[in-house]
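Anyone up for a design puzzle?
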C-alpha cells in the first residue's frame, strides 16, 4: 500500500472512534453529524503535517476539496446524502492516491457486507436490541455511514499493517 504505515498508526487512535460514532449515529438517526465530519478533518489538519512532507500534505488536502465539490454535485443530483458527501470529503485526505484501487475494492466489499448485514439484522432478534433506530424503517434508504466509516477504519488498519 502507498500509505505510510507510521501515518496510519498515528491516525488510527483518533480516527477509529470517529468512524464508530459515524456508523452508530447513521444507524440510529440516519444522519452523519457535522461535528463528526469537522473532527475527522481536524485530526488530519492537526496531525498530518507531522506525519508527511508538506507537499504531500497539501495534495492530500486538495483531495478533500475535490471530494467536497464532487459530493455537493452528487448530493444536488440526489445520488447521495449531504452527510455522506461531507464525510467522504473529510475522509479523502487520509487516502494515499496510489491506494485508490485498494480503497474502491475495500469500499465495494464493505458496502455489500454492510448492506447485507443491516438488511438481515433488521429481521432478526438483533433489532430488539436497538428498537428506536431509524435505519430499520427507511425502506430502500441505507445508512451509508456504516460503510463509509467502516471503509476508512479498515483502510487505516490495513495501512498500518501493510503500508510503506
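Challenge accepted. My sequence:
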Amino acid at each position: 500500500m502507498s500509505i505510510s504505515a507510521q501515518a496510519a498508526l498515528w491516525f488510527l487512535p483518533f480516527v477509529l472512534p470517529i468512524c464508530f460514532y459515524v456508523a452508530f449515529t447513521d444507524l440510529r438517526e440516519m444522519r452523519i453529524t457535522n461535528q463528526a465530519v469537522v473532527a475527522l478533518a481536524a485530526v488530519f489538519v492537526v496531525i498530518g503535517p507531522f506525519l508527511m512532507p508538506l507537499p504531500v500534505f497539501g495534495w492530500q488536502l486538495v483531495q478533500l476539496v475535490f471530494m467536497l465539490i464532487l459530493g455537493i454535485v452528487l448530493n444536488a443530483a440526489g445520488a447521495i446524502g449531504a452527510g455522506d458527501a461531507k464525510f467522504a470529503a473529510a475522509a479523502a485526505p487520509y487516502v494515499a492516491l496510489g491506494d485508490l484501487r485498494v480503497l474502491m475494492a475495500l469500499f465495494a466489499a464493505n458496502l455489500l457486507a454492510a448492506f447485507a448485514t443491516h438488511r438481515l439484522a433488521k429481521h432478526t432478534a438483533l433489532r430488539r436490541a436497538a428498537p428506536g433506530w431509524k435505519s430499520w424503517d427507511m425502506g430502500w434508504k441505507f445508512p451509508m455511514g456504516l460503510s463509509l466509516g467502516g471503509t476508512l477504519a479498515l483502510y487505516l488498519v490495513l495501512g498500518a499493517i501493510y503500508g510503506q
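A detail worth pointing out: The chain has a mean pLDDT of 95.
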